[in-house]
Amino acid sequence: MAGPRQGPTGGLLPAGRTRFFAVAHAAVTPLTKPGITNEKHSETGRHRPAGALTGCAATGPKFDEQQANTPKLAADQGRVYFYRVNSMVGAAVQPDIKLDGAVVGESKPGGYIYADTSAGSHEAGTSTEATNNLSFVLDKGETKYVRTSVSMGLMVGRVKPELVGQEEALKEIAELSYIGKPAK
Q1: What is the pLDDT of residues 163-177, one digit of tens each?
Q2: d(CA 105, CA 112)
Q3: What is the pLDDT of residues 99-121, one digit of tens each?
Q4: To the nearest 10°, the Cα dihedral for 110, 115, 121, 126?
Q5: CB-hemisphere CA count at 13 Å for 81?
Q6: How far apart, in Å, do the first and last CA atoms of the chain sit?
Q7: Are 146 and 81 in contact (CB under 8 A)?
Q8: Which DSSP category does 41 fall into?
Q9: What is the C-alpha separation between 62 and 65, in angstroms, rounded?
Q10: Boundaries of domain holding 36
Q11: Whose CA is closest to 148, among 71, 60, 67, 87?
């Protein structure tokens, strides 16, 4: 078994950790000469993480704007809203959201979708390195709200669905963008 090694800053690292720190160190090490730029490098020549500050947040009409275009719920169905508050924590982790095994959209920061479905027992889920499922019963004419949130995982963040009460959900969803398919 290999013993401790010297890290990029001179400190000792446990065996097996040198590769991680070498990769992390390489992400901030100049890849080009200062003053030379291209799509992946800033003017200083340091690597700029792609999508770190752009391209991750949802865009589309806000909840109040979209409500005018949201079709009326059929008498024999219920509606499930899925949403994720806007946060940079785990922003790049955007797994599919499934309802009863069928993909209905993505868990995207700052976005929401809805799915109309029959009354009865249902299962909503997301999957990254682990699958997280939520079971619930939906009545005819009822609306449920499922918030997805990111938590730490071993290699990738985990996105967990949880039922939220209507009052709390409507406060959180008010400024989110509709990211579903346009109504026909």
Answers
A1: 999 999 999 999 999
A2: 9
A3: 999 999 999 999 999 999 999 99
A4: -40
A5: 27
A6: 63
A7: yes
A8: B
A9: 5
A10: 1-48
A11: 87
Whether the model clears a pTM of 0.85, i.e. scores above it, the answer is no
Residues 83, 171 share a domain: yes
Number of domains in the chain: 2
> How far apart are alpha carbons 64 and 33 in whole angstroms?
49
CB atoms < 10 A from the CB of 115, how many?
20
43 and 67, same domain (yes or no): no
Q: Encoding tokens for residue 177?
A: 């963008």
Cβ-proximal residues to 136 (8 Å cutoff; 6+ apart), any chain: 121, 122, 124, 144, 163
Total residue length of the chain = 184
Residues 6+ apart with CB under 8 A from 159: 84, 90, 93, 95, 107, 126, 128, 132, 148, 149, 150, 151
Helix (H, G, I), strand (E, B) or coil at 43: coil
